[in-house]
Amino acid sequence: MIPSHEWIVGGDFNAVANLSEHSGRISPLQSDMDDLNDCLENCGLINPRLIGNLFTWSGNRSRGRVQRRLDRAVVNGTLMNNYDDITVTHLSSTTSDHKPILLQCLQNQSYGPKPFRFQNMWMNHNNFLQVISDFWKSRSYLGGIHGLDSKLKGLKAVLKEWNLKSFGNIQEKIQDAERLATSAQECFEADQSDFNRANYNKAKAELIMAIDNEFNFWKQKANLKWIEEGDSNTKFFHAYVKGRRTKSMIRVIEDSNGKPITNIEVIKKMAIEHFFNQFNNRKSVSMSPILAYINPTITEEDNNLLTMIPSDEEIKNTVWSLSPDSAPGPDGYNGHFFKFCWEIIHKDVISATREFFLGVPVRISYGSTFISLIPKINDPKNFCDYRPISLSTFMSKINTKILATRLQKILHKVVSVEQTGFQTLKGVKEQILLIEEMVHRIDNNTRSGNLVIKLDMAKAFDNMEWEYISNMLRQMGFSAFVTTLLLANLEASQLSILINGSPCGFFKMMRGVKQGDPLSPLLFILASEGLSRMLKKTMESGYISPFNTGRNILISHLAFADDIIIFSKGDGC
Fold first, then answer.
1. Where does the secretion signal sit in this chain (predicted)?
2. Which residues pair with 373 in a beta bridge?
3. For residue 238, is it within any domain?
4. Sheet holding 386-392, edge to edge
5. CA distance 546 to 567
6. Chain-centre distance of CA 103, in angstroms?
7. Residue 240: helix, strand or coil by DSSP?
8. What burial class does residue 259 get, using C-beta atoms within 10 Å of its C-beta: 0-12 exposed, 13-18 middle, 19+ buried?
9. I want to staple 426 with a disulfide (CB 3.0 to 4.6 A). Which of 40, 340, 383, 420 is the partner?
């Protein structure tokens, strides 16, 4: 197959790629699956995004009905790159036992303006730090949150203009550099003068730089944590980005009546309405019965630890501890920018961080957050099938990371041993072993039998009420000022939904904790402590009969974040 040409290969392959493409008692041969996958890989063929039912063939066999995906349409990378989205739909069959396949190649289209994003390749330019330094010196020093915010906003316009002049279109730059390098090589081969030698070396260096810029551009977009330094397969990164973008592309959403909506503007309005309701539908409930199980254990010393003004070293260490490759928030600046430009911007960053710990209100620009929608299933139908991940500004994550690191030191005072999620020196391995032992003892001789219940809390992070979190923190002994600091970034949050890379909407968040923020998991387990204490107390009081372990040991439940398993006797529910 010629890689530069567009290829579509379709038909009955008479084999499945993996066990998920098979349903029935007779399993497919591993050798057949390996042969198919090796063939697709060697030919550079990719399975496009599947819409609808997985199986294409069904039949009755002596050991029951069998369903398999025997038919498929696959494409190569060249075709994938030339279209915005390629989908495969398995249509209804009529007389045949094989389903027809509909392959759709959808042309590129605009979904709206894309936000500014700092490009890591800029750091390779020998003039980059000078551009940052000149701009930073040209702005009067205001200090604090307002000063840093003003500079970061103004810097965007400067970087956009500088990018056009210094980098322009990456692909065109490579093509131009290749032509110049070829021409310089020909001149040097014809006349090996010092001038032609220098010109040839310069042209080669510019070509290498152009290729390196392309590599860094696609590597940043791919954002693969497991890629080793030195890996330089630009085609791989490009294909990975294309595949991930295709998988997360939203082209159709069902409305409340199950009607498919394809108009992108209507889809954006539906997204805004759905997530506005999700993060603003506050519920007022009585908290006294739950809070009654909480005794204050946080001391004045603990509160002082959390409110202490951070030192220069603590702030710098926090910046370096945050992932520089995490997707940026609405301001567009990632951790690479803050680390690479630290000597220029550190005074402003330190001043802004200290203002936060003095209680200065968080600015709207700091609290602004993108909501990235990650599909929970292969073929999402509506917005309930997407997981909302928060993309906060890097500056806001510096503040919450400092609080989270300090909070880790005192969590053991308030969090029950039954909870193990997101805590230093606490892992899930011990819980897994304990659960296995409890399940092994489920048939212990006991009246009414033993019972194991797995709780599935829908949208647990998104439904957490701030009033409840605040009251829980105060009941545990956290001071009013500490409680304000812990909730400050949440209460300043303004959300925009990313639909195919373009933000839409701008509304205030009124409940929930942000998935993707360093502090949110700890706030969640602190709030969940109410449920843990309540379960434990109700069993200790005999209101719920405890699980019979065969020993005088009470194990009421185990919790890892929003996953909870309850153990009791069969007559305890």
1. none
2. 388
3. no
4. 386-392, 368-375, 494-499, 502-508
5. 7
6. 30
7. helix
8. exposed
9. 420
Q: How far apart are CA 478 and CA 484, in angstroms?
A: 10
Tokens of 503: 């933000």
pLDDT at residue 233 is higher than 60: no
**Segments forming the whole domain that contains residue 72:** 8-106
Cα distance between residue 276 and residue 148, in whole Å: 30
- DSSP secondary structure letters along 197-234: HHHHHHHHHHHHHHHHHHHHHHHHHH--TTPPTT---H
At 208, the pLDDT band (50, 70, 90 cuts) reads confident
Question: What length is written for the chain?
Answer: 573
The enclosing domain of 39 has a CATH number of: 3.60.10.10
DSSP SS3 for 346: helix
Contact 303, 482 (CB under 8 A): yes
Residues 538, 566: contact at Cβ < 8 Å? Answer: no
Asked if 8 contacts 75 with a C-beta cutoff of 8 angstroms, the reply is yes
List the one residue out of 458, 452, 438, 443 whose CA is nearest residue 573: 452
Query: What six digits make up the tokens of 333?
Result: 């600046």
* Cα–Cα distance, 249 to 500 (Å, whole number): 6
Say if 169 falls within a structural domain: no
Tokens linked to 316: 């710098």
| Residues facing residue 105 across a β-bridge | 86
**pLDDT class for 525, splitting at 50, 70, 90?**
very high
- 332 phi and psi angles, rounded to 5 deg: 90, -5
Number of structural domains, the chain?
2
